[in-house]
Write a structure and sequence with these properties.
Helix content is 40%, strand content 16%. With 391 residues, it is of the alpha/beta class. The structure holds pyridoxal-5'-phosphate (PLP).
């Protein structure tokens, strides 16, 4: 199957179908509480899994970097935007993940565009899990390679007759919270002579020894997974991204990845915040331990209440699958009434009939915060069941 860019619906049709989305207006960062549209709520919405976004230490590092190196990088990395701060973060990332080399990007979206377009082009094949993040799908479309999407149960089957083969997968799928079978993907890549890219946006800082990520958590290294994309906007609480891996592949991405070449380098304050965040990930294992305890607590209580959780979701993303988009919106609004902020995610972000509440847990939630959310969800479920019984 070869995909085209998603069609652009008419805005009036989109609105009539109830699909028009809006951006909730958020106040200052004070996790786990959040002010949304003027109302203070307990937030279960963010990817700040370790509570580092509001930590004063990355903020102080960012402020110092702004004073010494400027608020902006002033140029593309190849034209002088790559500072000594950038260089030392690349070295620290390579060391932390046990890889040859790292290369910074202004965003994870741009990192995925660069890696895929540097390694695949017309006549090549890019194999992707059906649930992959939009940035990987868009990258394959931009590359001009043949995009092949596989079901998790089938896996990729690269064809030896094609010049270059690339397999791409999220490590932790951003909506279902499920974890990819990375060692199976590594075997398929090896057998098919394909390169393998794992996007660990949601596992970096959370999974594996010292938060080194999902690939390390599965006991794998650079020989199995030559390229990993990590992002700094989630567990590190900052922004930006890097691709880490085998030196010769990273060099290709530096030379041919246009979304790295033709954009201003990652801003120095974000480089400094990400560097400090990376240190804190290693120095403060209690954050990962508290996060895991919250995940266990949520799963136990949500399952005990009979809520439709995802069995395979092992980490901080704990969706409640409600099926219908309107139902997900209603539950989300009812949670606001109870004092909680949990966004509803609807098609086309998730497949039709798989609309969900995207609960995401953090190290800074207390056990009572988690129990309170479960109790509110259970109340909403009972009220709904009571209402339909009366119809
Ligand atoms: C968030 C995310 C990205 C994009 O990263 P940004 O730094 O926010 O651009 C890429 N891949 C996955 C799986 C993500 O969840």
């Amino acid at each position: 199957m070869n995909l085209r860019l998603p069609s652009r619906p008419d805005l009036a049709d989109w609105t009539a179908a109830g699909l028009r989305r809006r951006r909730p207006l958020r106040g200052a960062c004070m996790p786990p509480r959040v002010r949304i549209d003027g109302r203070e709520l307990l937030g279960f919405h963010s990817n700040d899994y370790l509570g580092l976004a509001a930590d004063p230490r990355p903020a102080a590092a960012a402020a110092a970097a702004a004073r010494t190196h400027g608020c902006g990088a002033t140029a593309s990395a190849l034209l002088g935007g790559h500072t000594d701060l950038h260089e030392s973060l690349e070295l620290a990332l390579a060391r932390h993940l046990g890889r040859d080399r790292a290369l910074l990007f202004a965003a994870g979206y741009l990192a995925n565009l660069a890696v895929v377009t540097a390694l695949a082009g017309p006549g090549d094949e890019v194999w992707q899990d059906r649930e992959n993040h939009a940035s990987l799908i868009d990258a394959a479309l931009l590359s001009g390679a043949r995009l092949r999407r596989y079901r998790r149960s089938d896996g990729p089957r690269p064809s030896p007759s094609v010049a270059a083969r690339l397999i791409c997968s999220d490590a932790v799928f951003s909506m279902s919270g499920e974890v990819a079978p990375i060692s199976t993907l590594a075997d398929r890549a090896r057998e098919g002579g394909a390169a393998l890219l794992i996007d660990d946006a949601h596992g970096f800082g959370v999974n594996g020894p010292l938060g080194a990520g999902t690939v390390a958590a599965q006991g794998l290294g650079q020989a199995d997974v030559p390229l990993v994309v990590v992002t700094f906007g989630k567990a590190l609480g900052a922004g930006g991204a890097a691709v880490v891996g085998a030196a010769e592949l990273i060099e290709r991405v530096l030379q041919f990845g246009r979304s790295g070449t033709y954009t201003t380098a990652l801003a120095p304050p974000l480089v400094a915040a990400a560097s400090t965040g990376l240190d804190l990930v290693a120095l403060e294992p209690w954050r990962r331990e508290r996060l895991q305890a919250n995940v266990r607590r949520f799963r136990e209580q949500a399952t005990a209440c009979g809520l439709p959780t995802v069995e395979e979701a092992e980490g901080p993303i704990q969706p409640i699958v409600l099926g219908d988009g309107q139902r997900a919106l209603t539950w989300s609004q009812r949670l606001v009434d109870e004092g909680f902020f949990v966004p509803a995610v609807r098609p086309p972000t998730v497949p039709r009939g798989r609309a969900l509440l995207r609960v995401s847990l953090s190290a800074v939630h207390t056990p009572d915060d988690v129990s309170g959310l479960c109790a509110a969800l259970a109340l909403i479920a009972r009220t709904e069941a009571g209402a339909s019984a009366r119809v």
